[in-house]
Fold this protein.
Amino acid sequence: MKKHILIGSSDFKEFIEQQACYIDKTAMIEELMTNNHAKVSLFPRPRRFGKTLNMSMLKHFFDVDQAEENRKLFKGLAVEQSKAWGHQGKYPVIFLTLKELTTSSSEVFRQKLISLLSATIRNQFRFLLNSDQLDEFDIDYLKAIVSGTINAGGLENFLREFSNILYRHHGVAPVILIDEYDAPIHSAFTHGYLPEMLEFMRNFLSAGFKDNPNLTKGIITGILRVSKANIFSGLNNIKTYSILNHQFSDCFGLTQAEVDQLLIDANCQEQSEDVAEWYNGYSFGGSSKIYNPWSILNFVGNLRDGLIPYWVNTSSNDLIKEILPKAEKTTQDLLFGLLEGKTFEADVEDSMTFEDLYKGKSATVLGLLLFSGYLTTDGYSPSRRQRLRIPNLEIKQMYERILEQYLEATNIRQGHLIGSFLRQEPATFADLLERFFLNSFSFFDFDHLGESPEKIYHAFMLGLMTHLSGDYHVKSNRESGLGRSDIIIYPKDNSNPKAWVLEFKKKNKDIKESLQELADMALEQIKTKQYYSELKEAGHTEILAMGVAFNGKEVACAW
């Protein structure tokens, strides 16, 4: 490499001073200051796509307190030759990144936020404690934050109060940068204190961005656009630039030209096709071939390790693992096809309410997967629906990892369950499947699913089938014989005579038949409607037909 790769840092100044490899994204500043008339801009992007580094770059560009020192950081970068250069070093800056404020309770969150604000003032704004431009009330407010004695009201109003203080000292309205605003919200959703967090964040952000006279620009980043009803209620001056918008589409992630140059510098351009298969595939606002920067930089910085899933290994994916089992059946059927490399059209919510997410509403779940980087879009169809697909091999492997964790939670080895299925040992497979459901409390919560436990079963089958898709065709709701079977599986190797037909039934309180009787009915349906006819015509002579019935965590099979 001509310059070394700096991994694990999001500090723009550190990149420049260490002469590390930095992909110039400073053209974003000109776009913000000359072509963007919004007072407040929200940029939802997947994690590890350069949000914090860009916010650090903006902080060092605008900061009036270190103007001369920071000026040299931008020497030779695109913004130096732009119309926006006149804004360099002109504004006080409030820069807060909330990515580390993920906690198990609202009280711990408030304590961590106070510590963050206290450190910000002590490390960057200590001079304000001796400012002749501030009165005693301003000084007392700053001291309360530094000492950690700030009350609840003072904490919620921090952005407004502190922007007023900075204006009085400098005579210039500040720029407010809030990075990863939704990280605490995701944590609250996972740990069960979402209502308190939504109320706090609504008040906290509104104080800084709603009708604040002492604000030059507000810039917010996060993964998702939380619905206005949840967070941005009444905030009329905000403009969202999501992955569906053309403007700013190349400011996050790496373009094909940027990746090509990185591979040339690393003397590994011959691997460009394999790199694209693993890390390419994203489409932001019409800008095709956007790469995941975290994975690309890790690959280039660790060439001996080869092509491995870097991005999916940087997070526990807790939100995804919690939501997938709750998704509507139509969503899970769609994901079956996506795992086979297909593209599907679907409605997607571009803003999210957690109520719809927890209910498994299809458009909301797909929005979560799309905006957090687990799906991508090839644009709108003529019916204004999104054309969705899995972006690359790295993301496909994530779904396989989720399945492995499901299986580990039940003490059932993946090889045993899938192996018994492929060997056509139905009794063993049925036993392992029943044990899986009986022991899966740590992952699946039936209490929230009402009369729809079928969602859980299909979520499990979705993960299971990812392990078969390399060597087998997996068809969901395939028309065959006199109807549509739930799942048909047959090998891609035409010399393999085996094939499988699965039909599912679920028991509810209105069904009088026993669970085993339902499984027998499912098997009889396969035979009566001849779901196996297509497989027989294709030359498969060893076809396992299996009816599966379930009730909550109970499973019965017939074959």
